[in-house]
What does this fold into?
Amino acid sequence: MKNRSIILAKRPIGNPKPDDFALHEGELPDIQDNEILVKNFAISLDAGFRNWMDEDAGDEVLPAMPLDEPVMGLSLCEVLETKNPEYKVGDKLMARFAWQEYSIGKPGDFIAKLPKDLSFPYSYYLGVLGDTGMSAYFALTEIAPPKEGETVLISAAGGAVGSIAGQIAKIYGARAVGISSSPEKCDFLVNELGYDAAVNRKAPEGQADAIKAVCPDGVDIFLDNVGGETLQAAITNMNHRGRIAMIGAVTHYTSKGAPSAPNNLFELVSKEITAQGFMTHFRHDEYEAVRQQLEKWLSEGKLKIFEHKLTGIENVGVAFCQMFDGQNFGKTVVDL
It folds into this structure.
């Protein structure tokens, strides 16, 4: 069977560019015992996967991605053939598979079954009902749960995780303030997502002063998707015993050298701030219960969903790069 995929043609330097990726066509091998053959019908684009594109990357979640091999990501797929008794032909799954039209699932791969009857658009199961929504939910329920009236500051607030996190903060009675990269995105945060205020990270007065202007009583919780100077500015404005949920660090894994910020980490000590990183990868056993809660909020109209969609395997690399250029409003998905 012919299979088209997007391979990592060269190591990105800084933000990824379309020519870092290439379209490749090859033959798909037959499946072996305990394996499944799936057709991917939608691919999730997640900025965090940029971290594993560097040669010296690699951790207990994923190894560094090899050159000239398909790029890893998350997809929605349907089982076409199975030699694994846990799966039936027709099962719909969310899985960590490569950017390709067909994949072979092996024992040990991250694979989660989807409900037989999907109650919402399929792309939601890569976004609000997938890792994106899980990240926002765990950040605000397990890592840094807000009390009513507290101020929650969120970086990359118009992106996939941030667009959900701000709305969850409001559900819990907090004041939500978002940081984004343009006046247009700041308007989107307030007028579409219901944020109480927004900060342009490119404000001429600098991020710290811009945050202070809309958070005069300080910041109680910071959801960090960016790191770098944005994290530094948030720490400057944190209240005593504030909490930081560290979800991502885009500026660090796209930096061409050692980041110069944050350089105020002693404030974590002097203000007794708690900072904790986390990954949904280690919370798979909680997915079903969390998905049910997110579905309930969707049904009640408490969550608005925005998506940035492209079509075709040839556009997966392009869509990935668009996120780093700030072109996406909400979750980025490519339909195949």
In short: The longest helix spans residues 131-143. The chain has two domains: 2-127+306-335, 131-280. The radius of gyration is 20 Å.
